[in-house]
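FAQ: What does a multi-protein file look like?

Like this. Sequence, then tokens, then the next protein.
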Amino acid sequence: MHPRWWVLSAWAVVGALAVVRAGGVADRLDVRGGSLRVTEASRVDELLATRFRQDIGETFLVLVTGPESFTGGRPRRLLEALCSALAREPYVREVTWFGSSGDSTLLSADRRTAVALVTLRVARADTVLRLVIPIRTVLRRAVAAFPEGAQYHAIVTGDTPLERDMLTVTTEDVARSERRMLPVAAVILFIACGSAAGAALPLAVGFLAIAVALAIVDVIAGMVPMSIYVLTVATMIGLGVGIDYSLLLLRRFREELEHDAAVEDAVVRTVAGATVGTSGLCVAVGFAALLFTPLVETRSIGIGGLVVVAVAVALALTLVPALLAVLGRRVARRSASELAARRLPVNGRGIAASAVGPSRGLSRDRAAVLWEHWARALTRRPGLALLAGGLTLACLTAPVAWLRVGLPARHWWPSQTEAGEGLDLLTRIGGAGAVQPVRIVVDWPDSVGSALGFGALRGLRALSDSLRADPRVREVRSLVDLRARTSLLEYSLWYSDLAAVRARNAAALDLLLSADRRATRLDVVLADTTSLLSAMDVVRRARRLAAAPPPALARARIFVGGYVAQHVDFQDDLLGRVPLLVGVVFGATALMLGVVFRSVLIPLKAILLNTLSVGSTLGLIVLVFQRGGNGTEAIFVAVPVLVFAVVFGLSMDYEVFLLSRIKEAFDSGRDNERATITGLSATAGVITAAALLMIAVFGAFAFARVLVIRLLGFGLAAAVLLDATVIRLVLVPAVMQLAGRWNWWPGVRRLP
């Protein structure tokens, strides 16, 4: 059997196994993410997991809306039935509603929305995550069984329900984006390739790259934490580079066939002349740099990006040549207009019409003629082109000065989900701050004694009062805030009979006091008007208070944690690694380009222009999302880091294609100007087609419901657009023309 059939058979087996394995990857991915090192917030989680009772876990919020007041009649009976159904579940420890507690804050002002607090018996994050769907199922059945139940709507929200819905939405958005992108990419490929077989080949390679990469990610996720975001990034990058590399090889193969080469010879020349391996290394540099970041989210994207790029390169260098050998001239069919265009006379200069083709005289088409005119115009006015392109990017980069990193004030949680809808409803009726409070743990050493001593209670009261003085705080829940208008002496006497306190309020006591009575917890509930961005400032203020505590807490250790505090720690950690990440990307890029092109100027020019590309992309993100109508007010800290790493790598992709063609023409004996014209006119068409495909892929994800994915999709689509137009078609040839033979120093010894 011919080797090509072995290759095709091997990839068929790998693909079938990958499709089966990749189907369950979402269940292995981590929704919560977090820092890979010990942080203050992680210490709080550890203390709560090891020192406090584990038969009391997270509290879900159930919101029930109806047409009438829940204070009596049929609505109240429905609410009682729902709470009773939940209380019967073995994983539920306690259900609190206004009827059981007398707490009127569990009702909205119009009494037509009621809130029930469902406290679980388990505290493990993975177990709690799996309980979201069962609790919702219990509610649906209870409502459906009640007469006129269709008039009532029950919603489950809370910290873990929000994350569970984030997982569901991310998975759905990937599938939806693929469906949106597929017809657009198919049309672009059909126009670029001129045949159905030629258009189908890159699409098949792109989707196979995704399946194989996700199967590998599924294996890796069993060994190290992998964020849910890797699902989206692997899909975006897999489709983008998989289609990109296949298209470039396909165009080279068609060009070889136009020279009347036999199919076998055309395949050999296609693989020999390809720069896919070098381009893949350049793209991998950005993802590799993310491995130096301390977050699960960014490191997962780095691992996923490396995997999918490696798979795409492997497919391009093995499967694509085998398919080309089998399909032969069927992928080289041209449209009637293109065949007519081929009858145009060949230019005496013999400038190539393909991005990766040799510098021999080739048949020309109208597109190549237009690109040659563009290239000649640039080389005649390189200074003007450099000024125009530079000013364009400078104007787009200017908004970066307004960039503010942090948790977005709006649109962080998808409002189209059940938990997101519940959070919006809580915001309207009051109480959204209870979903994700700031958690503070005060821990006393053995020598001090119990957290229930009079001195400890006095310190807790002082800390609680200081926290409550912040207008962004709604209330503080602690051992000294359980009863209204109670003095410290009364609390001290009350806690002297701990058994009696536990008998009356066991859930609250177990939640706030550790099993050894040497640590206590304070929950800082934020006001409904406090955004996530403002909450980060509340965390920082709480940590300043902890650093200079009341005298009664001088010997205690105070840690500030919770959801928002985790993101404060993430942000500080990630920003601290930015210099290392930038250094790795710049250093690896300079080394690779310097070795490949034997030049000093080309790596420096590439780093400068790619930095402008990143800056322009971030400027557009700031304008559209942070400063735009109903803006987020801040950009999540991981987004600028990811944009820098991914955009820098993808930009190097086109850089290598363009410069390789210019260098090939220069080495064949052309002077620098003719080599620049040859390279630009030869690569412009394929770079444009590849860029349109990338924009279609990334742009589809710009409509995702998860804000981080929306930011990345928009940013990558904008970056590719700028890179393929202003940078590759204007600035790069202008700089190459102005630098002359110095472009190739010291590889070229003789300089003018």
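And here is the next protein:
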Amino acid sequence: MTPDRIEAARALLSFYAEAGVDALVGETPLDRLSVAQIDLTPATIVEQTPDRAPIARAPEMRPRIAPAPNTETNLGAAPAAPDIAVMAAREAARGAASLIELREILSKFEGCALRTTAKQLVFADGNPQARVMFVGEAPGREEDIEGLPFVGPSGKLLDLMMAAIGLNRATAYIANVIPWRPPGNRTPTPQESQICLPFIRRQIELANPDVLVCMGNPATQTLLGVKQGIRATRGKWFDFQTGTREIRAVATFHPAYLLRTPSEKRFAWRDFLAIKKALSQA
């Protein structure tokens, strides 16, 4: 293989990795959506009659029905329907008496298809006894590799933002609404968010922070039940009900958005100053 082809192959593999393709499932491509594959090999039919010599008919094309792929072997068990998965998630989350139990339950939960494409579960980081909890949308590529939330570029920015108000990962608790990386870092679907919602709600309840910070539009809308965009909700305070107590919650921009739009950092700074003030008064 020439150096140019080697470089092209490396670039293609890098593209696949960024898109979330990180597992080889077969040596040859297979159309798993096809019900039948046509075998165009001619088949000659010979007809024997009582009073004549055998007559050979013209070849005809016979369809060959391809066997259904063994999805249990190749793709794992199919996830349950969304409504059934949501009910199962609620029941499973209620059974967790501690954050350790909740993590164990999540690691075995098969109701969300994202677990089959992610490398591993990304549960949380920081101090579960902290007075403030930050919740984002879903893990990215770096988080999927390390198994911890906010360890990529957006995580480094979050560390700087926390440090500016006297916080760090020893004094804050960090998690995501979705604990598995969506392929290619795509936005989680509403069904995926609803399936994972009982787990993050139980996680917040067990961590029991004084202040909950929802970072980004998906986390804000999922946890706080608002329909407005993040520009309309950031900086505003809400009451988050856990079932056992009321927690003050605030929405702010996601660090990944701030990396793409640095001009919005001034608004995030105001939000973090408000978080600092709320912690001093609680």
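Q: Is there any per-entry metadata?
A: Some entries carry free-text notes. For the entry above: The two ends are 65 Å apart (CA to CA).
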